[in-house]
Write a structure and sequence with these properties.
alpha+beta, two-stranded antiparallel ribbon, 3-stranded antiparallel sheet, 86 residues
């Protein structure tokens, strides 16, 4: 599911495999799209949809569109026990 600029919905539905999101058989508000997992087969596909979402997020939050996710990767260690049990 992707949140995008409502002004782009018609073009995105026409030009991509995205469909207008539905819940309980009813269309969600304009701007919510669903892209089937089997349509996102390459990193470039995922990058496209992440950028669509980040662009809209930047508009609604008044911020600049976020940097590409690949440039902002961070690693977080999962909390766990040490081998000594401490």
């Amino acid at each position: 599911m992707v949140r995008c600029d409502p002004a782009r919905v018609d073009a995105l539905v026409k030009e991509t495999p995205a469909q207008w999101a539905q819940m309980s058989g009813r269309a969600m508000s304009k701007g919510w799209l669903v892209v089937a997992a089997d349509e996102v087969t390459q990193d470039a596909d995922l990058d496209f949809w992440v950028e669509v979402a980040l662009e809209f997020n930047g508009k609604v939050t008044g911020g600049k569109p976020a940097e590409k996710a690949a440039e902002k990767k961070t690693t977080a260690k999962k909390p766990g026990r040490s081998s000594t049990g401490e």
